Amino acid sequence: MLKKILLVVLALSLLCSCANKAQTGAAHGAAAGALIGQAIGQNTEATLIGIAAGALLGYLVGNEMEREDKALMNRTYETGRSYESREWVNPDTGHQYSVTPRPAYRNPRGRDCREAEILTIINGKAEKTIATACRENGRWIIQ
Fold this sequence. Notes:
Blueprint: H1 2-15, H2 21-41, H3 44-62, H4 67-79, E1 86-89, E2 96-101, E3 105-106, E4 112-122, E5 125-136, E6 139-142
Antiparallel strand pairs: 1-2, 2-4, 3-4, 4-5, 5-6
């Protein structure tokens, strides 16, 4: 079984060379999860659970925005005018962002919150989402 896992890890590593960060993260997470699941449970079910959990966690970590992109997003939530878009391109990744904040409001817990329409273009593929962020300790945290 360990030989099969090592073969999967090797295959996933080779595939990662042509994938984006999220896909690479998912592949590496799946491989690590397989090894951990097998080491802990020493059966196929534990290995499969490890693969699934590792892939999900790896995808989420790999899909995270770069640090500077997060800082620009935070500034947009903090100082951006409502319904006025801020756009930027990450010079390292080439990812494009357009963030259009909506008016701030106070939620039932008494925290300042704000929605924004976020358009991302990664490898030519556009994705639009609406994200709500609330201020915590001077920073906007997407909920």
